[in-house]
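WARN retry 2 of 3 for item q-0093 after timeout on previous attempt; input resubmitted unchanged.
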Amino acid sequence: MITFENIDLIFDDKKIFSDFSLEIAQGEKVVFLGKSGLGKSSLFALLLGFVRPQRGRVLFDGGPVDEHTVWNVRQKISFVDQDVSIGDHKVSEWFAFVAEIKANQSLDFSLDKIKELMDFFELSRDLLNKDISDLSGGERQRVAIIVSVMLKRDVFLLDEITSALDKNLKKKAADFYIGRKDWTVVSISHDAVWLDNPHVKVFDLEKKAWKQ
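OK item q-0093 returned
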């Protein structure tokens, strides 16, 4: 499903990866663990085609990620970033904006579906009328989670999406993704709900090895 093959990556004269290889199979749940600067977010950027390696290649679903394929690859992935960059509209307007994107027009962005997911993730329905800028960090994370689910993708890249949630919601969100057997989920997280789950494989970027 996802392969990093003999990757060399250098930023500002700093070598992030040297001959780095990693494979993630379809349906696997994987967490990248490591301190800042080890390349966790860089792996997401490589897969999404935002950066190119100096050597090696990235494969998605058997094909290379390059200038010819990257748009198609991005359409198959739900990416939720650490900064939860979802604009400054009202929440309802943000859902409408995502729904109106050409690639999403066949998806179910009905108000009933939105409210169903808001209830599950314990968000007040009154939130729909609030400005995104007025939401707490945890509320923004849950809005972004809901959008990622509604996009109906099978591959999820999740960058610290539970960091601002309380203990109960951390577990609820993590279990939601982990419990879908057909989803391939790659998460960056330091939360125990991901790291201690028996169904999740942990890759230690400091040791460049799977954690036993």
